[in-house]
Amino acid sequence: MNTKEYLKYLLNAKDWTQEEKKWMLRYLDANDLSELEAVAAEEFNTDIHAVKNILDRKLSENILDKIHQQIQTPPAVHTRVVRWYRSKIAAAALIVLIAGTVYFFKDNLNSFFNPVEMLQVAAGTRERKKVQLPDGSAVALEPGSTLEYPATFEGKERVVKLDGEAFFEVTKNPEHPFVIHTRFIHTTVLGTSFSVRAYGAQEAQVVVVTGRVKVQTAAQGKGSGEIEVTVNQSVVYNKATGQLEKREAAEEALFYERRHNGKFIYDGVAMATVVKDMERFYNTSIVLNGNVKHCIFYGSFYTSDELEKALRFVTVTLNAKVKKDSLANRYIITGGACH
Q: Which of 5-19, 106-120, 143-157, 158-172 has the lowest mean pLDDT?
């Protein structure tokens, strides 16, 4: 057998004969260790399919241990021989580890030597921003939110970082999944529309409007503890337990869809629901008093409308009145004649 095949045989053999030990020492003394590099790369190549791109460092350790264990330093040898032996073992270690590391982390190495410019967009406390990503995906940032993303997506995944709340419309690309990193959760998607809310230390939530996504906690390893959610479902991160909770979320999904489309349309909806949407969208407090609490609303308001204008649209159809309570920082709707 040739050198490469013989190396494979030795690295997989349980015990080495004295001749085999001498052969390995002669090989390590040679200037060309390319066969060992090739064998190491092939071993890693086989392993990568088995562990799905997760580096098993035990593989490289086993190869090095095999060399160390089988080749024992002869007793009563000259100090120069010991130094020679150690230097050759160190060279072999470098070859094995570099071969495996380069194979598994070639994308990371490329990113290190050719860093991609990172961009950041922040929405003020009273503004909303729309961001077009390099792959054509669209992100609608809510007030007080920050999005970080690369000027160009490279590597196997399209990764962005979010602090706050945003609505995503992801361009489909099965070869390069889209991943959103937040403090507590990571969300992976191929192509869909959904909302992510994760402000700082607050609990995190993902609500799916279309398509399907996978969510996992940031503290877990990739692929572990994943929860898959689809249309009208959500995942909430429970800080107390550190676990993800899957929930039905038809109303939540409808809210995000309306908000994203720029118009809240109601066709016979309880006023309590309308007020809840307005409180959430405008980040304010609204109180219903009197008959209006029992009314059903038919109408709409635009997301571009100021709060007072939207309130007038809602109350005028019900012949109700709205008053601002500046001290309590809230609005009070009273009266009303239900149709």
A: 106-120
Mean pLDDT (the chain, rounded): 78
The conformational region for residue 36 under phi > 0 = left, psi -120 to 50 = alpha, else beta, is alpha
Mean pLDDT of 179-187: 92
Write b or e for each residue in 247-277: b if 16 or more Cβ atoms lie within 10 A of its Cβ, otherwise e: eebeebbbbbebbbeeebebeeeebeebbeb
Q: How many CB atoms are closer than 10 A to CB 199? A: 16
Structural domain boundaries of the chain?
Answer: 3-104, 118-252, 262-335
**SS3 assignment for the chain:** CCHHHHHHHHHHCCCCCHHHHHHHHHHHHCCCCHHHHHHHHHHHHHHHHHHCCCCCHHHHHHHHHHHHHHCCCCCCCCHHHHHHHHHHHHHHHHHHHHHHHHHHCHHHHHHHHCCCCEEEEECCCCCCEEEECCCCCEEEECCCCEEEEECCCCCCCEEEEEEEEEEEECCCCCCCCEEEECCCEEEEECCCEEEEEECCCCCCEEEEEECEEEEEECCCCCCCCCEEEECCEEEEEECCCCEEEEEECHHHHHHHHHHHHCEEEEEEEEHHHHHHHHHHHHCCCEEECHHHHHCEEEEEEECCCCHHHHHHHHHHCCCEEEEEECCCCEEEEEECCCC
202 or 29, which is more confident: 202
Query: What pLDDT, on a 0 to 100 scale, did the predictor assign at position 240?
Result: 83
Q: Which residue from 167, 187, 164, 163 is spatially nearest to 177, judged by alpha carbons?
A: 187
Rounded to two decimals, the pTM is: 0.60
Fold of 118-252: Jelly Rolls (2.60.120)
Contact 230, 211 (CB under 8 A): yes
First to last CA, the chain: 92
Q: CATH assignment of 262-335?
A: 3.55.50.30
